[in-house]
């Protein structure tokens, strides 16, 4: 999510033309957000849960994304810069360009559809969770709930942008270039990313200190 926000800022400001190799590289990673959110919730609520032997199925969209960024990655730097010159002026070209094996709009649709399915499965974990049969503390449970609520808001905000961009292109272009409308959405994504990073980075230290005391 943080990478997505950074790349968009680069595009919005035009600095992406100085770093063309960074463009389009996040597509595979975006497909991993939803399954990672699901497994974070699963292992928070059920630390003893085991990953299915078919876990690699979750990586298929990631592989699909890697394959689709190859044409742009193999293009010359001059071709990449030429594309980005157009993208900076017309942001809709970000999902209209021909550097890929599929129509770029499908990345938005497929990624959001998969995220919605994972989100339903994520909330199902809370529905099936029985605190009387669990040994996890209330703080861990509340942390998972807060995370799921924020992630749901993230998808809700994303859904509005995707629907507007895909089905009303003129208005979508206006929204993509309107700083006052995008700043709050981008700020939410940024703070959400920082919160996740801090939580994951410092939780092991907190856990060890609690054990020692």
Descriptive terms for the model:
disordered C terminus; 213 residues; mainly alpha
Distance, first to last CA: 36 Å
**From the helix content, strand content and strand pairing, which structural class follows?**
mainly alpha
Strand content: under 5%
Radius of gyration: 19 Å
Helix segment tally: 10
Layout of helices and strands:
Elements: H1 2-13, H2 27-30, H3 33-45, H4 60-68, H5 70-74, H6 77-89, H7 105-128, H8 138-167, H9 169-177, H10 179-212
Helix pairs in contact: 3-7, 3-8, 7-8, 8-9, 8-10
Task: Note down, in words, how this protein is organized.
Helix 8 crosses helix 9 (169-177). The protein is built from ten helices and no strands. The chain has 213 residues and is mainly α. Helices cover 72% and strands 0% of the residues. The radius of gyration is 19 Å and the shape is elongated. The chain has helices at residues 2-13, 27-30, 33-45, 60-68, 70-74, 77-89, 105-128, 138-167, 169-177, 179-212. It starts with a helix and ends with a helix.
